[in-house]
Amino acid sequence: MRNAVVALALTAAALPAQALQVSIRDAAGAPLPLAMVTLKAERPLRAAGDDNGYPRERTEQRISPEITAFAGPDGRVQIDYPEAVPLNLRVRVPGYQDLAQTGVSADATLELRLTAETDPAALAAQQPANAWFAALDFGGDAELKKTAMEQCSFCHQQGSFFMRRERSEEEWQQVMERMIGYGARPSSEHQPKLIEVFQKGYTDLRQHPEKVLRAKPWETHLAGAQVREWPIGDPFSQMHDLLLHSNGKVYVGDNLQDRLWEIDPKTGQTLVYKTPVDEGDEIGGLFSGRLKTYPKLETTAGIHSFAESPKDGHIFITPSLQQRLFEFDPVSKVFTTHYFDDGLYPHTVRIDAQDNVWFTLALSNQVGRFDRQTKSFRTYGLPARSTKEEVGLALNGVVRKLMNWGMPMHWLPVDKRVTGMPLPYGIDVAPDGRVWFARLHADSIGVIDPKTDSVQVIDTPFQGPRRLRADAVGDIWIAAFPEAKIVRYHPADGSFSDYPLPTALNGAETPYSLNVDRARQQVWVTGTASDSLMRLDIASGQWRTFPMSRKVTFTRDIEIAADGSVFTSNGAFPSWQIEDGQPTLIELKPGQ
Question: How many whole angstroms separate alpha carbon 110 and alpha carbon 94?
């Protein structure tokens, strides 16, 4: 597919058959550069919903893409939609009212004028979640604010239109209890303070919308960018991690419905596979009490993270709610289940050059390794921070059983750095074969040397390292989730370098994940609080920000294609918080 924006000198005769050309201006006729134009088929091909709202397993579907591009300096944009079908069009520019048209021909030429937005409430509503969160008054308590970003933005945005609506303190208390039941861990001391901040703060911002901060203006590089999306799942899905496979297809896991989506981004052809269920498996898996109140749930495994074997292309998947690994052969379409009995909550997974499968065990403070040659597991125990934490880790199994029997999780005391749950999270294999990991609540990273089986833990000078990746020279890039920055760790001298995120407002942004384009020496970062993706050029230190087309775009991982395009998924939990309630697979072509 061609880039969405082409040179104005391009003649009409050379345009593609379905080239839609749009000129966007304000009411006075002045061009509106960087206007965001989104096209959707008026009657899109969608994955069928005849299996409890999802496609029947292993039946081929086709999904029509949604395409977003940005106008050039003259307010003009051209988009080549791949099908000659009537289209729905939306134009979005900060500071202006959205404009929508239906039944647009794929080869139309349109002159559109936008109306400036003057209503302060509507202008505030255009801002991303972190613009609202950044305007909350924490009374100068930086620790409380970090807790709010780390724990109250754990699986969804804090400050989105769903979270900032009118609630009493009693209703916020119910929200807090439900969030803790799902697994968040704000400290017991901070919980009543957070309820007060949210209840009073969002009420004040709704009454005085002029206090809401303004996101950074869009920048000229967007005129060369294009975003494609494929709607997958429904408002009850959680499209967690994804994998861009060497076969060109993208695999996305629905964590709440245990379905593996296979999408061909060239054609939109889609297949869905259900993950294996053993006799006796319960809904919710080993944590059956965790999501009992969730309205629609089919998960027994909780498929989470993906990695491709360099040997045979098999896909390894962590089912976080079981003591298993799934192996999926994308050719034969056969699943194999590998069982282990030491460790809880298999989380993020990566595979080394020797075809060993490495994964974090988030709730048991371990890193696991699966040797594909011997079909054997080994676990690496990570050091506890204190005797109290050792006891807490030892009692994890008891707490899990009590939770499954109905014990409310919000009754458990939690200290400020979540003693008892260091939470090994992200993991990656460096070019030298060493395995690096991050511990979100323990404020540390670590490294395992497979040659010696040694484990080293390194305290971080920042809070909440979430996911990490190694670059081409072996430096480690870390998402500092509650600190609105990414951090580079230099193993050669043990130093850390900070890179504040360009989307941060008053210190508010939550980078869930990042990935390194080793070929281009660029770092891609998820702007989970700002509806964006960001790219850092390592050599120059230059940032570029790419806004996404939907509000409440909560991205969890990034995959990088050979041409420099990137894939991610909108994995908000729950997905009904997303604008229009629709999770998607997202492809960004950043342009030049």
Answer: 20
Dist. CA 321–CA 72, nearest whole Å: 47
**pLDDT tens profile 255-283:** 999 999 999 999 999 999 999 999 999 99
The pLDDT tens digits for 417-453 are 999 999 999 999 999 999 999 999 999 999 999 999 9
Q: In what order do the strands lie in the sheet with 454-459?
A: 424-429, 435-439, 444-449, 454-459
Residue 398 makes CB contacts below 8 A (sequence gap 6+) with: none
Taken in order of first residue, the domains within the chain and their CATH numbers are 12-118 (2.60.40.1120), 119-214+387-414 (no CATH), 237-381 (2.130.10.10)
Distance, CA of 94 to CA of 212 (rounded, Å): 14
Calpha distance 517→269 (Å, rounded): 27
The Cα–Cα gap between 370 and 341 comes to 13
Residue 311, SS3 per DSSP: coil
Task: Read off φ and ψ for residue 437, nearest 5 degrees.
Answer: -140, 160
**Can you say whether residue 292 is alpha, beta or left, with left for phi > 0 and alpha for psi between -120 and 50 degrees?**
alpha
Give the phi and the psi of residue 560 in degrees, each rounded to 5. Answer: -115, 130
Separation of alpha carbons 560 and 520, rounded Å: 11
How do residues 498-552 score in pLDDT, each as one tens digit? 999 999 999 999 999 999 999 999 999 999 999 999 999 999 999 999 999 999 9
Cα–Cα dist 557/251, whole Å: 12
Encoded amino acid at 406, one letter: G
